[in-house]
Amino acid sequence: MKIAFDALPLISERMTGIGYCQAGQIQALMALHPEEQYVMQFFATGDGGEKRKRLESYENARAELRQGKCSGYLYRLVSNFLPVPYNKFFGSDADITHFFNYIVPPKVSGKTVVTVHDMVYKAFPETVRGRTRYMLETGLKRSMKRADLIVTDSEFSRSEILKYFPQWETKLRVVPCGVDRSRFRPILDSVRIDETKKLLGIDREYFLYLGTLEPRKNLRRLVIAYDGFRKGKAEYPCLVLAGGKGWLNDELMRTIKELELEPDVKIVSYVPEENICKLMSGALAFVFPSIYEGFGMPPLEAMACGVPVLTTHAASLPEVVGDCALICDPYHTEQITDCLERLYHDSKLRRELSAAGLKRARIYSWENAAAALYDVYKEALRG
Asked: By the 8 A CB rule, do 230 and 236 touch?
């Protein structure tokens, strides 16, 4: 097979969860099936510059880089209304082209596969950026019609897609995400952890959230719950909110200020890649109170680091963490507070969750994901 990938999620300055999902699946696929031909396709003006550099590791893995000389944003915008042929930019020699970011453009040669990660724009439209919501509202139905097969990350997301688009049931396949256990693993060296804490301005024990700071992550309720947790204590862990700022952060920041939490809630906007595992491994617990996830990779990554996890019963999260995490209702701050109390005081519970999480994380490998994805490609070609 000649397998082409739309590289859009891989070439942004800071990758999101979609980009990490794509990277994990295709890197494992290339290792599992080196006999196949691979093409990384991306739009860029000029010589491609930084975007081409971000794909160098795939080129070194014998994937061909293929550039469409056009602004990617302009192409996506125009092709949403006019049938501008994708194959005019990238040729017609691919057997399969996989789009990992919801949208299949017009006139793609060969078979097409699209990954639809979740239905958050339908379920919680108020938490989705307006531009993204508009593109999905106007383009997703047409995109799924164009695709030969549709991949999603979890059984929960499959059920959500069928709730809104039941006509595509025969096209829909589940390929769970994975975790790179060479990247996410327990760090037991306290010196390395202390160096990372010092670098990020963390001076004591801490609860950690790592991910985009955006509304559906439910961070305002977490902050309110944390305020309840710290009351009456002379000493207590700080709360570290680490990750890129998304949108609609004003309410979160206002709540932190109103509750006078600035010394205790530390916003770390960027964590260098080499420090993420050390930051996770040093945490007292990882807290992920999201109200909606198509899969939920951060709790799984924390488990792979041997960190006890607190998450919610919302969406796909129970499917991913099983009975290996402390589960709460995302809408009840008192429950979140109670769970923080339990994690803080109960060292036996932390040890049990750590051991169970490490075992759970082994189930979700990128190699398993790649094998399932390869089966999807073979099925698409038979269709």
From this structure: yes
**Per-residue pLDDT, 280:** 97
- Give yes or no for a contact between 370 and 36, defined as CB atoms under 8 angstroms apart: no
Q: How far apart are CA 86 and CA 76, in angstroms?
A: 10
pLDDT per residue as tens digits for the range 139-188: 999 999 999 999 999 999 999 999 999 999 999 999 999 999 999 999 99
Write the CATH number of the domain with boundaries 190-361. Answer: 3.40.50.2000
Do 190-361 and 2-178+365-382 have the same topology in CATH? yes
Task: Pull the structure tokens for residue 21.
Answer: 């999902």
Domain ranges of the chain: 2-178+365-382, 190-361
Give CA torsion, residues 209, 283, 25, 163, to 10 deg: -40
Report the Cα 286 to chain-centroid distance in Å. 16
Burial of 27 from C-beta contacts in 10 A (0-12 / 13-18 / 19+):
middle
305 φψ region: left (φ > 0), alpha (ψ -120 to 50), beta (else): alpha
Q: Whole-angstrom distance between the N-terminal and C-terminal Cα of the chain?
A: 15
Topology (CATH) of 2-178+365-382 = Rossmann fold (3.40.50)
pLDDT of 60 reads 77
Residue 57: Cβ within 10 Å count: 12
Confidence of residue 212 (pLDDT cuts 50, 70, 90): confident
Amino acid 246: pLDDT: 63
